[in-house]
Design goal:
By secondary structure, the protein is of the alpha/beta class. It has two helices and eight strands.
Length: about 160
């Protein structure tokens, strides 16, 4: 006979003051560091939207990060509500070149909002390459197809 647990009287939703953020371990998605600045993501799925909010809080209040220039914040620009940008689709290829995947999780509106924000910052990359990806889970992000490993090499 199994002895009842002290938690049997609670529903799972009652055990947390703040609901868990299960994808928080995927730190490449809610923000991207470009040079000395940061780009915040606009997550495509509702389950992941709080991750960008947490990233904003960290960059705002952490003593080592609060002075980082914000190169793009979808919450602060006039982008369409359905403009999505996730960090797994943003690859820094050099200080002057960034590739962005138009994928299952990042769309053209999100890319255009990023491009507009980067135009306003003198120290941002000069070139933004858009890579069209199939809208399938196997190609969810640009970094699932290629990942820079050196100045002139990628896998």
């Amino acid at each position: 006979m199994t002895r009842p647990s002290q938690f049997d009287q609670f529903e799972a939703s009652e055990l947390f003051s703040v609901a868990p953020v299960p994808n928080w371990c995927f730190q490449r998605d809610p923000q991207v560091v470009l040079g000395n600045g940061v780009v915040f993501g606009a997550m495509a799925t509702a389950a992941r939207r709080r991750e960008s909010d947490l990233s904003r809080a960290i960059f705002r209040f952490h003593p080592d990060l609060h002075a980082a220039p914000i190169l793009h914040d979808p919450a602060a620009v006039a982008a369409p509500q359905d403009a999505f940008l996730e960090g797994g689709d943003v690859l820094v290829l050099s200080p002057d070149v960034v590739a962005v995947g138009n994928s299952e999780r990042t769309n053209r509106d999100g890319i255009q909002a990023l491009a507009q924000s980067l135009r306003e910052h003198e120290a941002s990359p000069r070139w933004l390459l858009v890579v069209e990806l199939p809208k399938r889970r196997a190609y969810m992000h640009l970094d699932t197809l290629m990942t820079p490993v050196d100045r002139d090499a990628c896998l």
